[in-house]
């Protein structure tokens, strides 16, 4: 093992990693908490499926509006302050969804809740990039694993609360007060100031903590960065688009495929997305070690192949148990791609990590929103099995776009990643 990896991270970096971990866990748990009680909220407001879809669209629009704003603010104020702001908004809006007196207030609440979710997503990933630069080894995947774990924990807690007939107001208020309050009062304090670990235009920090002179000036806009870096950023955004389009399709259509195409019962139909989510979480917990062993580019190429093969298995056999296994393979394949994309976006030269992440995240989230309705439109013409074939194609596109993850700044890589990158070229 290299001397670099044997070097213990500074206490400030360790504390910052713990704080960022809490942000990822909070983000996932608040989202899982809301999702777990959607049926009760729908029943309370007597919403049809169409009316509920319109209300949920407001949450997506809030996220899309907040993401670029969060990136812009992070470049000017620092991601630490922006993360603190969106944490308060996100946690504070959860109880408002339960106490909304009418549909209009619910839609407004969902817009702001989505803004908190999307804004925090950009800021916390910006912090994750800074911490990873301090550690000088891949740790991004472990952060995203905690987001997945938080989502599963929030959903499981919500199911328990619903089974115990706990009022949704009590449930949401308790989660927001305990989890959000703890993060705001304790976990946000150790977050890193952006200029401490290589904000573009600021001094770089070497592996032994010494400052290195900055070689480039801050560029805060897309138009001001070199064409090669802009092309790389667009390619990373398209890669995120492909993967998150598949995630959205799995979330909305995996259960229907199992029930309508394979003839699975209600219980097994719900197991499809559960297998996908569990495999994604476990894959993210192993993603950092796989990155060291394979390098980002080869890892993402293999991940895209695994996802495409798993979904092909489900579509070709149309057998319920084979489909569940195939959906698990898709989750494992998707697991490490987005962490690699965000980590690479944070290393785009001459651009602040916040703006780069906002660009990539917004493109990726666009895929997440476009995927489910596109699958539905195509299914009207060729059936659900053929429509889900689009996810096979986007997974194959991810394999082709993996070259965008080829790291160009070797000073930001560990020797293991440098070696694996050279093998993949």
Q: Kindly estimate the percentage of residues that lie in beta strands according to DSSP.
A: under 5%
The secondary-structure class comes to: mainly alpha
So what's the overall shape? globular
- Provide a count of the helices: 16
Q: Return the CATH topology of the largest domain.
A: Growth Hormone, Chain: A
Tell me the domain tally: 2
Reported CATH architecture of the largest domain: Up-down Bundle
- Low-confidence segments: 1-6, 196-220, 409-416, 419-425
SSE string, helices as H and strands as E? HHHHHHHHEEHHHHHHHH
Radius of gyration: 21 Å
Name the helicity range. over 70%
The description of the largest β-sheet is: 2 strands, antiparallel
CATH uppermost class of the largest domain? Mainly Alpha
Distance between the termini: 23 Å
The total of beta strands comes to 2
> What would the average pLDDT be, to the nearest integer?
82
- Largest sheet, order of strands side by side? 1-2
Keyword list:
Growth Hormone, Chain: A, mainly alpha, single chain, disordered C terminus, two-stranded antiparallel ribbon, 425 residues
């Amino acid at each position: 093992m290299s001397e670099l990896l044997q070097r213990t991270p500074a206490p400030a970096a360790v504390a910052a990693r713990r704080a960022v971990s809490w942000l990822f866990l909070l983000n996932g748990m608040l989202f899982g908490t809301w999702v777990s009680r959607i049926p009760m909220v729908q029943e309370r407001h007597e919403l049809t499926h169409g009316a509920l879809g319109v209300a949920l669209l407001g949450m997506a629009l809030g996220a899309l509006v907040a993401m670029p704003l969060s990136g812009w603010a992070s470049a000017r104020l620092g991601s630490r302050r922006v993360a603190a702001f969106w944490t308060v908004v996100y946690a504070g809006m959860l109880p408002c969804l339960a106490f909304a007196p009418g549909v209009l207030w619910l839609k407004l609440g969902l817009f702001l809740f989505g803004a908190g979710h999307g804004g925090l997503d950009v800021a916390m990933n910006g912090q994750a990039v800074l911490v990873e630069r301090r550690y000088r080894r891949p740790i991004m995947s472990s952060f995203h694993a905690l987001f997945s774990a938080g989502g599963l924990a929030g959903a499981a807690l919500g199911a328990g609360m619903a089974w115990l007939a706990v009022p949704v107001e009590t449930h949401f208020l308790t989660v927001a007060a305990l989890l959000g309050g703890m993060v705001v009062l304790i976990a946000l304090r150790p977050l890193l100031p952006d200029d401490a670990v290589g904000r573009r235009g600021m001094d770089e920090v070497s592996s032994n903590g010494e400052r290195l002179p900055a070689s480039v000036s801050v560029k805060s806009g897309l138009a001001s960065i070199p064409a090669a870096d802009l092309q790389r950023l667009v390619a990373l955004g398209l890669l995120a688009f492909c993967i998150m389009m598949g995630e959205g399709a799995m979330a909305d259509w995996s259960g229907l495929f199992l029930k309508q195409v394979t003839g699975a019962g209600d219980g097994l139909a719900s197991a499809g997305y559960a297998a996908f989510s569990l495999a994604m979480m476990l894959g993210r917990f192993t993603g950092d070690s796989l990155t060291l062993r394979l390098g980002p580019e080869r890892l993402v190429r293999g991940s895209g192949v695994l996802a495409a093969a798993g979904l092909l298995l489900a579509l070709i056999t149309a057998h319920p148990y084979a489909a569940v296994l195939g959906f698990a393979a898709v989750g494992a394949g998707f697991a490490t791609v987005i962490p690699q994309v965000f980590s690479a976006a944070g290393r785009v030269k001459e651009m602040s990590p916040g703006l780069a992440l906002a660009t990539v995240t917004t493109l990726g989230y666009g895929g997440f929103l476009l995927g489910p309705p596109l699958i539905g439109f195509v299914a009207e013409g060729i059936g659900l099995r053929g429509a889900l074939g689009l996810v096979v194609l986007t997974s194959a596109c991810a394999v082709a776009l993996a070259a965008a993850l080829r790291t160009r700044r070797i000073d930001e890589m560990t020797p293991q990643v440098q070696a694996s990158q050279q093998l993949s070229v």
